[in-house]
Amino acid sequence: MLKDRIEAGKLLSEKLKKYQNSNTIVLAVPRGGVPVGYVIAKSLHLPLDIVLSKKIGHPSNTEFAIGAISSDSMILDEHPNVSKKYIDHEIIRLRKLMTEKYQHYMGNRKPLDVKEKNIILVDDGIATGNTLLASISMLRKKNPAKIIVATPVIPYDKVPVFKKNADEFIYLIASKYFRSVGGFYEEFNQVEDAEVIHLLSLPIDTD
């Protein structure tokens, strides 16, 4: 069990020590990944930014993901009964939402350039992993030096997926009895937008 996201960030920082003061950017997944990513960025003196991706829900059950999308890439499962028109509409709708969300969290700041840099991609836990995989495929197109995925909690059977898709995969707990990410934290409060905006506005010493 982890106490909270702060402890998770500290424990992951220990495993990521070799990236301290290096050519590396921490990219956190809002909202829950931001407190974890902030602790890592602060501990290792690295710049912090966010990465956004969204699941594409099935038209008859939006909770059921048929794919995932980021600002410039997409992963889609085969669903012959889902129309191209529906998918095209969702892509436009979700990309507009993501643009608005980025501005909401980051103001007028431009996303950090990740070309030829190491990226530490952080979330507070992985369940299905679909949206994080979409983020990895989007980031690959931007030619980073290396993608390191760091997460406190993951289902045991998802570990090989991330070992294959990331250049390095760092985790604290891989459970065969996985019900939910929150089940591995003593405190797992909802992270509000205000907290995300506050953490992203704090200065981080990157020298």
Automatic annotation (TrEMBL):
Domain Phosphoribosyltransferase: residue ranges: 7-156
Superkingdom of source: Bacteria
Keyword Glycosyltransferase: yes
Keywords assigned: Glycosyltransferase, Transferase
Example of a GO MF term: glycosyltransferase activity
CDD domains, per database record: PRTases_typeI (cd06223)
Designated name of the protein: Phosphoribosyltransferase family protein
